[in-house]
User: Fold this.
Amino acid sequence: MSLHRTWIQADGCKAAVEPPRLLLAGHRKQGGVVRLWPDEAVTAGLGIAEGIETALSLAWAYAPVWACIDAGNLAALPYLTGIDCLLIGADNDPAGKAAAKACAANRADADAEVFVTRQVENDLNDVLTEVAA
Assistant:
């Protein structure tokens, strides 16, 4: 277990500080997820994304949702038994596309239904921010 901190301004945008996010020192992030819904809420389907902001944006259309923290964790997300449908909120960058493809391939091999988002913007959070402006 760890603690993930992202600094956000009152308007919902990331704060212009360095570093923009931190994990609790001395704890690993590899293999971790931020469960935005509890385990018992995850029954037949799950939405996942790299970052918390993208996962929260995905939650406007689908729930429950977890954030995988980064592309490496998204790509390596283990197969979760009982999840028949996985919705991946993919980032539109090389790492995000590769991670979504790897994650989707793992589920497709197990006969799970998989959907991957596609957008011109970098991620779903950028889409919603643009629409809200």
Notes: The chain is about 25% helix and 20% strand. The mean pLDDT is 85.
